[in-house]
User: Which sequence fits this backbone?
């Protein structure tokens, strides 16, 4: 649960930083938002004792955040 919350916080701070930078929000920001949703889902799944699904959601969130760094 803590790992999912950490990934969600990182995604949230990056989204806020991108939106406050004054540049145009691109595809990378949308991918970070999807990663944030996936990390939030992982927290809820972990809370409901669905740990395998929660781990899969964390991995998808981290992969999405890594992919978003490569996008503009």
Assistant:
């Amino acid at each position: 649960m803590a790992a999912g919350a950490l990934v969600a916080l990182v995604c949230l701070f990056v989204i806020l930083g991108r939106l406050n930078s004054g540049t145009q929000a691109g595809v990378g920001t949308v991918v970070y938002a999807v990663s944030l949703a996936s990390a939030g889902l992982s927290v809820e799944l972990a809370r409901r004792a669905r740990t395998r699904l929660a781990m899969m959601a964390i991995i998808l969130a981290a992969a999405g955040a890594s992919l978003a760094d490569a996008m503009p």
Q: What stands out?
A: The chain has one domain: 2-14+27-70. Residues 2-14+27-70 form one domain. The helical segments are 2-20, 27-47, 51-70.
